[in-house]
Amino acid sequence: MSQHTQALTGFLADLNYAQLPEAVISRTEDLFLDWLGSALASQGAHPIPLFERYAAMMGPASGPAGVLVNGTTSSAYFAALVNGASSHLVEQDDLHNSSVLHPATVVFPAVLAGAQDLGKTGRELILAAVAGYEAGIRIGEFLGRSHYRTFHTTATVGTLAAAVGVGKLMDFNQEQFTNLLGSAGTQAAGLWEFLRDAADSKQLHTAKAAADGLLAAYLTAEGLSGARNILEGEQGMAAGMSSDANPACLSDGLGRRWALTETSFKFHASCRHTHPAADALLDLMQREHLRAEDIARVTTRVHQGAIDVLGRVLVPQSVHQAKFSMGTVLGLIAVYGKAGLPEFQQHALTDPRISEFRDKVHMVLDDEVDSAYPQRWLGRVEVTTVQGRTVHGRIDEPKGDPGNTLTRDELEDKFRRLLAFSGARNDEQASGLVELVWHLRHLDDLSMLTRTGSSS
Amino acid sequence: MSQHTQALTGFLADLNYAQLPEAVISRTEDLFLDWLGSALASQGAHPIPLFERYAAMMGPASGPAGVLVNGTTSSAYFAALVNGASSHLVEQDDLHNSSVLHPATVVFPAVLAGAQDLGKTGRELILAAVAGYEAGIRIGEFLGRSHYRTFHTTATVGTLAAAVGVGKLMDFNQEQFTNLLGSAGTQAAGLWEFLRDAADSKQLHTAKAAADGLLAAYLTAEGLSGARNILEGEQGMAAGMSSDANPACLSDGLGRRWALTETSFKFHASCRHTHPAADALLDLMQREHLRAEDIARVTTRVHQGAIDVLGRVLVPQSVHQAKFSMGTVLGLIAVYGKAGLPEFQQHALTDPRISEFRDKVHMVLDDEVDSAYPQRWLGRVEVTTVQGRTVHGRIDEPKGDPGNTLTRDELEDKFRRLLAFSGARNDEQASGLVELVWHLRHLDDLSMLTRTGSSS
Prior knowledge:
Two copies of one chain form a homodimer.
Chain A: H1 3-14, H2 22-40, H3 48-58, E1 65-66, E2 73-74, H4 76-86, E3 95-96, H5 104-118, H6 122-150, H7 153-169, H8 174-185, H9 201-222, H10 237-241, E4 263-264, H11 275-288, E5 295-302, H12 304-310, H13 319-322, H14 326-336, H15 341-347, H16 352-358, E6 361-365, H17 367-372, E7 379-385, E8 390-395, H18 408-422, H19 427-438
Parallel strand pairs in A: 5-6
Antiparallel strand pairs in A: 1-2, 3-4, 5-7, 7-8
Helix pairs in contact in A: 1-8, 2-6, 2-18, 2-19, 3-4, 4-5, 4-9, 5-6, 5-7, 5-9, 6-7, 7-8, 7-9, 8-9, 11-14, 14-16, 18-19
Protein name (chains A, B): MmgE/PrpD family protein
Family (chains A, B): Belongs to the PrpD family.
Organism (chains A, B): Pseudomonas kulmbachensis
């Protein structure tokens, strides 16, 4: 095992709450609220009820952990599974840029279910989440761009991130974290192939990453051993699933660089790969006073990862797939000025102006954008007007990125819009939840977070 | 999607009991008994109780499906999980050579748990198992040797084999089988890295393959969609996890070639990669009247896969790891004339004659053996005696292979020895189980198969 893996497991074992800067603690609360909203926003939407029925069939009738979308309880495993499925569906959860990992949707379902099961406090939940984020982000960076080309990093690396979070709840020592990474890493799975068919696997991926990570932690606590070098070993994750792995990423700035604070909140309700172009187009249209009908052609200059993920979606067949259609997203921006959940739900597939605009949009690989990626997600669009004029839009930090982040007011607003969208909670309940989350570090009883109406 | 995947899913949907040759039906009964013995033999052995405790913690207090090693019941998911963990531990379960897949340990836990849950008959169980074997073996062959180099095929492909079995129980049509492969394939995981540490992941792998496959089938039945081309697609299994995939394997001889009948029963209680050399050495020693102390050096000429899997185990640290030590296995053969469970348990780590012999054993890559593999597993050993004489041993079909298979009497005998080893069932109970399995095709109620003492 290299010094890098060793440094990582040592850091995870030693990490304690007193060590966390205030900015990390409050950002964890921000991220938790953002995650909670994302999960509740999917209530009732396909395929979430399938996971609810599966949990009811295979799990206990009730248990210590709460299922957000239906207010039932179950064992920690099934709560993590259903909450993991729920929180990625509306594509409003956070993203860490350079790892291309969505940490919240895998870390929070696992640590919340584990914390409720184990009777842990808000502080312990925060510490566990930080551990999951710090490890997951570094492992994502370690596996690199070649991994992301075929594997859905949030699924694969997510399994380890979730596992680490639950391991931290259980106060694992370094030896246990070593075994834990082994048992989580050897379960890591998730392929991008589903995307071109608009299949439901993204929800399966996040559900399983959260639940499998939790399973790895509980079995490690019982004494299950795992491969000691699952990340870097000759038959480990990098060997099997990456061609550009960089071990130094695993220990990068541990305890000094808080990767959790580098995460981006999603402003638009679409795949993050569309956001730089969406912001650049919005900015350009406002600056040049352009309307959708003024535009004849849009060329977005993007990184290769955007082409890999979005390039297959030509004519979206579902609302979910529309979030991976660059043309559809830019169409909503151009026609409606925003690409939120209601715009997707009501217009993405049905408004002829959107499909018309979609056909005007083209992606091309841009060297500058591509070399900045994944550290920075640059937005570059080139618009040709119907009058034949060519204008350029550019943003260097999309809305929601660390340098252009959302305030607590904006996060609250987003949270309320997400809950209103699905009707999962009424206004009063939403206020109660916001109140709880802004006091997360002081909560002794975490059961209220998942009990419907408990806070009203 | 290619014609090959399409042919496979079409075959799976159309497959019916009337189509199965008698040899396939009776061989499935043979394989089922062999699997049942393997699972029961691990009762009480680490790490199986960890999985039992996990199932008790996360699952319902009781349910329609039986857990073999402790006689409790649970939901189908947890029964598949614990039975999947149990049946690979003693390394006595079957193997299909050219796919390097151990089908029983992933297919039977899933289809038995599913069949008990769904109230299916013995005939339906047999049909489901055949579907799982036929699909799993072909998918293993499709992914090829490059996959097996890093990935534990029984874990990865096992997830799909288990899923197909349960899908057949549910009488899936072709469209459902397509979705099922997508949801199973995107969960496929399992790396060989654990082996060099003698870690417990092999049990985790088979447990999760069986349980995840079952999960995929239940969610598909509920309506979850999956990638339509998970095997061959540009971001599918072959793209991410193989460099020598051959799509033609997927449809090879469907309905004419019954791959299930090509499986090998294990005679020695060790990794199958050691068996050709073990049989060749045993044959040579008998022919030349050699005793262990007459031997100064053994060179086994092997295929690359044997070196990949066994090459890392120098001094075994556990009984389980000793099964992957070529020197230890040949030592037991030389000193005790056999390498069964009692020999491993009592002598593999403690008898100084075994460790002494181990150091005399060397593996070298052999071109003839390597090119025959994985279709044929040739055994070639070169022994130098203490007197300086060099003699050669060779076998072309290890004991248990289709052309050198075990009779029903030998299978019964093996079954009784496995049960006696762990004490999981007494003699009378063993006889009852044998009786049940030889009538598997006529059973209406499968609950008796897992109920302790029910048959006595």
